[in-house]
Amino acid sequence: MMFDALPLKDGIGAEIRTDAETLLTTDIAAKVRRLLIERGVLVFRKLALTDEQQVTLANLMGSLRQEGEKGIYKITLDKNANERRDYLKGSFLWHIDGTHDDVPPFASLLTGITLSQTGGQTEFANSYGAFEELPQQMKDRISGLRVVHSVEVSMRRADIEPTEANISFWRRFPDKTHNLVWTHTSGRKSLVIGCHASHIDGMEKAAGEKLLQELLEWTTQSRFVYRHEWTPGDLVIWDNTGVLHRVEPYPLDCGRMMHRTTLLGEEAFA
Ligand SMILES: [Fe+2]
């Protein structure tokens, strides 16, 4: 049995050193879940879990979202493998998954299978920490504000071609309005921002966009960000309820392939 957790940076992340056999036990998975909530992102270098082991870990940590093949969703821009690859290009911008829903996914587990020669590294920004360290004046200014989130706005910002088919797909997701500051049942607070944050409800549009941009820049400054440089077999888990993420652009046809497992949300935006 081997288990060690080392912080990656002060403001975000931990590297877990363990082996699959140790990890896939109830007690250790519960410990990993606690560390995830505490640190935002967990990295397991070259753990090389099989799909089945990844799904087992997900089930030990929460409730698996049924997607892809038996819970494994294959992330790739290869058009032979993914007919919705345009949509995935939205992940090149900072975002939170699931802002078009009331309850966003709790966490995602991602294993690197085939990497790109260029780009494709993933960055994570801790919005719990970013909120905590905002000047009090800004905390007061943004408390009570509500933000309109739009899939269409995020896709246009990601420069995805607004074809008729794309637009009609984007519009299948109605806009959602969430509090800018999410107070979780734990009492912790995070910021609900990203490329999908269109504008602030009831505020002049340009002023709202400027404020959202300012908060995004604050949250994605180096001290709150962990950048993961992938090696095949790495497993990365992030808490989607408080951590923004993005992937550095990579060539569409480079064959990059990641296996993702998603844990269902346990708490609505509030
Ligand atoms: Fe994402």
Walk me through this protein's architecture.
The chain is α+β, with helices and mostly antiparallel strands and 270 residues long. Helix content is 28%, strand content 26%. Strand 1 (3-7) and strand 2 form a beta hairpin. The longest helix is centred in the C-terminal third of the chain and has 15 residues, at 205-219. The termini are far apart. The model has no long low-confidence stretch (mean pLDDT 95). The structure holds fe (ii) ion (FE2). The site of fe (ii) ion has 4 residues, from loops.
Secondary structural class: alpha+beta
Terminal CA distance reads 40 Å
Summarize model confidence as the mean pLDDT.
Answer: 95
**What does the largest sheet look like?**
7 strands, mixed
Spell out the helices and strands N to C. EEHHEHEHEEHHEHHEEEEHEEEE
Q: Layout of SSEs?
A:
Blueprint: E1 3-7, E2 14-18, H1 20-23, H2 26-39, E3 41-44, H3 51-61, E4 73-75, H4 85-88, E5 107-114, E6 122-126, H5 127-132, H6 136-142, E7 146-149, H7 151-157, H8 164-170, E8 176-179, E9 181-183, E10 189-191, E11 197-200, H9 205-219, E12 225-228, E13 235-239, E14 243-247, E15 257-263
Parallel strand pairs: 2-3
Antiparallel strand pairs: 1-2, 3-13, 4-15, 5-13, 5-15, 6-12, 6-14, 7-8, 7-11, 9-10
Bound molecules: fe (ii) ion.
